[in-house]
Amino acid sequence: MHKERRLANAALLFYLSLSLLFLLLPLGSLVVSARIVLGYAFFPFIESAQAVSQRFGNVPANVLRLLNAEKENALLREKLKQAEIIESRYSAALEENKRLSQMAAFSALPQWSGIWARVIDRDPSRWNSIVSINKGTNDGVAVRAAVLGVQDGHIGLVGKIIETTRDVSKVLLITDDMSSVTGYLKDKGFDGLVEGTGHEYLRLNYMPLSAQVEIGAEVLTSPISAVFPEGVPVGRVAKFYPREDFMTFMSAEVVPAIRLSAVKEVFVITGQDKSKRAAQKDK
Amino acid sequence: MQYLILYLLSALAHWWCATYLSFHGLSPAFMLVVTVAVSAMAGETASYTYAFFSGLFLDFMGAHLFGGYALTFTLAARGVMFLRKRMDFAGVFSQMFLTAAATLFCILFYGVAGLVFEKAFVWNGWIYFGLMPVLNGVFAPVLFAVLDRCGLQEALDEW
Predict the structure, then answer these.
(1) Which of A22, A53, A57 sits opposite B67 (nearest CB)?
(2) pTM as predicted
(3) How far is B109 from B122, CA to CA, in rounded Å?
């Protein structure tokens, strides 16, 4: 015990003396040298610690940045999705606007009174036969009413109403194989029967054999038609079918005036031809 | 070996506290607190040795009064030894008090050493004088607990 005590006292004395010596002696150059020597021991240690500390010190900030980036990324993805949706809506609106502008131009010269309707349904198995529209008896739509369409600023015959409920009606397209329209060839002065084929084109039957008809001739609805108003473009002659010996008439293929497979809005005639009404009024 | 590891870790912690935990120039004086803790737990010779080299580390890191911290810390260790026989340092408040007192002693003694050996009292301001003992005192129980949990006393006694 005494030995330990003496050792401790000796150590204390030694360290105190050494400290005082450091303080008293002019050890400037020696201390500087010792500092340099010890610097080799301490500074790499501290530098390494600093490097590690910096490396790991940045970890929380980096993690936070990463989390923020993740959050921001999710937000931007969501915004991008919304932007895509908006863009598609914008494109659709542009298309609709274009179509409606054409219709507005069409309705600016209303020859018939009627109502615009939107195609809301189409039977995929009978694409060229029937479409449903969003107007019904509440809007004045009646069975057998003529339905017109507009494409590229031109009017064309679409079909006729075959069924109607309060808010929805069905339109039998002129391309349906059960559909037929009395048509006449413009500037030729004779009638024919335009029949649907179930495909995108029509067939014009019962043209006189002596008729001089060219490809591209315009077919209009006939004045004798009981359903359709007079003078509505039905289509244009695309080709003539070869005449059989037993046939007493000519037939031609007619391309509809408007592309019925892509029609989006239609005009349903709900009233009389205005010019006829005016004439009746005059009488 | 444990002594060396503790010394290196203390030096590292002291540097880290001074670099990253410094607030208006105030940071826990890790070397001093560890010296006090070692002096309160370990044998006399080990405590003096540790105190001397801890002070020497600070002297090497500083630019003036070479040997001042070594002398101050060795005397502080002697003071702790003196108090250890009269006080129980197992409690948190006694550890805080001991550390705060040792800090005050170090500040004043180092200032006086500066006055004697460099003709100027080393004075870091009233804030430093008032807050450093508190800061070290608050920090002390944690270090005491960590060193105790690490089996420092047994290791240093064995050393």
Answers:
(1) A22
(2) 0.48
(3) 9
